[in-house]
Amino acid sequence: MYRNYGKSIALQAGFDVAQGSIIAMIDGDLQDNPKEIKGLVDHLNKGYDLISGWKKNRKDPFEKKIASSIFNFFVRLFSGLKIHDSNCGLKVLRKEVVTTLNLYGGRHRYIPLLAHQKNFSVSELAVDHRERKFGISKYGTKRYSEGFFDFLTILFLGKYMDRPLHFFGAIGLLFSLLGVIVESYILYLKYFLFEPFQQHIALLIFGAILIIVGLQLFTFGLLGELIVNKEQKIKNYIKEIIE
What we know:
The protein is about 55% helix and about 5% strand. By secondary structure, the chain is an alpha+beta fold. It folds into two domains: about 5-160, Alpha-Beta Complex (Spore Coat Polysaccharide Biosynthesis Protein SpsA, Chain A); about 165-240. The longest helix is centred in the last third of the chain and has 42 residues, at about 200-240. The radius of gyration is 24 Å and the shape is elongated. The chain starts with 6 loop residues before the first helix and ends with a helix.
């Protein structure tokens, strides 16, 4: 018997075989009204690449409403994607957006964000949301932690995939700077207040660890840059051969 591989895999399978220039998504529980699809398509044709439904008057338990509000707040805060309901199951999007998606795990929650990172135009439209009448939700509290880590992964890959030194280098520089400050403070205690190193051995070791970790992170960033640079050269070489 086949097991359930999750919503992301199911959506990706559907996207892979979809033929139309505009593709609609809707959950099987029909809490989202299928009649709203026409309005979303009309809004899409105003010049957008993806329209996400907005459950403005959401008919869900209080716990789900609070979790969704917190989730969407952090998406808006850290991604710059200014929509209210990123995870609404009702969406319409162009085929060009679909071809850039690679859904797995819990990435279906972030389809508007993934499109936004690819510089597609994303908007939203308030839709009719109804109380659940069919089926039982399979999502437990585990989805919150999984969704958080998926969000961090998408943010990192979208912003720093082509420039890893900007990420690791910045953190490494911060750690190293903190380490230098700690060690400078130890030297101040030693040569100005005449306190022996042995009295602050733990702080001395802590400062050294900060500097070492900072240098390691900076090295990771450099290695990442080398890998990215090599892959880019390979892509350019292949492009030259094709041309």
